[in-house]
Structure formats: structure tokens, C-alpha cells
């Protein structure tokens, strides 16, 4: 990673980057062919003003990356959402530093809250595992209707609803401050199972698409029977 990248808590002086950030969020989701809960520049700017976001910049002001905090269920759950890195700086290690900083900020602002995330990427799963997150079922996430309403702008929303919000393309991960493994343990576990997770995520996408298309066509969905079926409610 470039040593001159500055990663810090965002503030009201950073709101001018909001449009650039939301534009990159949208174009990145389209390029991956996956969904992301869409956020407006005004929403991102508000997070900056509230001190609930982390931004990465070069000394000359070039925008590098961003992530923000959302609290749900009367602050019992916190999500570190919208992680995005400008294309020229991807695979530089800055995403990990942003995630570490937003995680620390979340623990500072919401010390008793469970921290969770949804991701379609193996790289983000690894970063989360290094912080102490564990893969969980959707039933262990917040039941706050406002959180799930945020998924309506995602291209995969119909798939989510067809599964009664029990599963989708994203993998859920959770850090529970009251009951958690140490980061060394979750990181080691991820390294051991990374190939399995990679194959499973591809299989999951294939099966969800197949079942959704069958449902659209009036056919009966075939439920896979495996360990991951019980873990992730496929």
C-alpha cells in the first residue's frame, strides 16, 4: 500500500466527495454484476457530518476509499456498510485499513452492539475474519425492517424476498462483543476453509439463480441437502 494514503474519520469538510463515492459504488456494483443497497450523496454526506464514516485520501486530496456506519434495532446492531475503494487503489491493502478503522470506530461509538456485514466478495470475507467476524445465517442479523428496506435498490432484491429474507447472494458475517472468538482464531479458520467458501459462494449463486428462475416459471424449487444448506438456509 502507498504509505502516503491517509485513512481517518470523515467530517463535514469531506462532503464534497459524496457524489464521487456514490457514483463509484453504483458503477462498481454494475461491473461485478451483483447488488448493493443504493445510497444517495445526501445520505453519505450526512454520515460524514455525524462522524460515522471513514475516508481514505492522498495528501493532495485525491479520493481513495470510504466506508460508513449504520445502526439498527435501537442500536443493538451496527453495520459497516458501503466499503468502496477507487479502482486505481484496489489490491493496495487500503480496504483492510479502512475496515479496521471503521471497525474500531464502531466499537468506540457502539461498544455493546453486534457488528455485522453482508458481502459477495471473498476478499472482504477475509478482512472481516481478520477482525474477528464469523459467517452466520441471516436469522442472526437485525430484524429491523428499515435495514431490509435498504435492499430494495439492490438488483437481487427479488431473490432475497423469494427466500423470505433467509438467504441471498451475500454472505452474512457477525462480530458479537459479548460472545466471540479472537481474531487469530477466526482468521486461521478462514485460511483453512477459504477454498471451501469460494466454491460454496459460486455454488450458492448458481443454485439461488436456478431456484429463483424456476419459481418465476412456476416450477418447484429443488432444495440442496448439504452442510451449507443447514448453515446458510439455501
From TrEMBL:
SUPFAM superfamilies: Acyl-CoA N-acyltransferases (Nat). It comes from Sediminibacterium goheungense. InterPro entries: Acyl_CoA_acyltransferase (IPR016181). The lineage of its organism: Bacteria, Pseudomonadati, Bacteroidota, Chitinophagia, Chitinophagales. This is N-acetyltransferase domain-containing protein.
Amino acid at each position: 500500500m502507498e504509505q502516503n494514503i491517509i485513512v481517518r474519520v470523515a467530517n463535514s469538510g469531506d462532503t464534497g466527495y459524496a457524489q464521487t463515492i456514490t457514483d463509484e459504488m453504483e458503477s462498481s456494483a454494475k461491473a461485478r454484476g451483483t447488488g448493493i443497497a443504493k445510497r444517495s450523496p445526501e445520505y453519505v454526506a450526512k454520515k460524514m457530518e455525524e462522524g460515522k464514516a471513514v475516508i481514505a485520501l492522498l495528501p493532495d486530496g485525491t479520493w481513495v476509499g470510504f466506508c460508513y456506519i449504520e445502526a439498527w434495532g435501537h442500536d443493538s446492531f451496527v453495520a459497516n456498510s458501503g466499503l468502496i475503494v477507487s479502482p486505481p487503489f484496489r489490491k493496495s491493502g487500503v480496504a483492510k485499513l479502512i475496515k479496521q478503522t471503521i471497525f474500531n470506530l464502531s466499537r468506540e461509538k457502539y461498544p455493546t452492539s453486534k457488528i455485522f456485514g453482508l458481502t459477495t466478495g471473498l476478499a472482504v470475507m477475509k478482512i472481516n475474519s481478520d477482525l474477528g467476524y464469523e459467517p452466520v445465517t441471516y436469522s442472526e442479523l437485525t430484524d429491523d425492517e428499515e435495514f431490509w428496506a435498504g435492499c430494495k435498490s439492490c438488483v437481487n432484491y427479488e431473490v432475497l424476498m423469494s427466500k423470505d429474507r433467509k438467504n441471498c447472494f451475500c454472505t452474512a458475517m457477525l462480530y458479537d462483543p459479548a460472545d466471540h472468538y479472537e481474531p487469530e482464531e477466526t482468521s486461521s479458520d478462514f485460511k483453512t476453509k477459504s477454498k471451501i467458501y469460494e466454491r460454496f459462494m459460486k455454488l450458492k449463486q448458481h443454485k439461488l439463480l436456478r431456484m429463483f428462475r424456476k419459481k418465476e416459471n412456476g416450477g418447484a424449487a429443488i432444495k440442496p441437502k448439504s452442510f451449507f444448506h443447514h448453515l446458510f438456509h439455501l
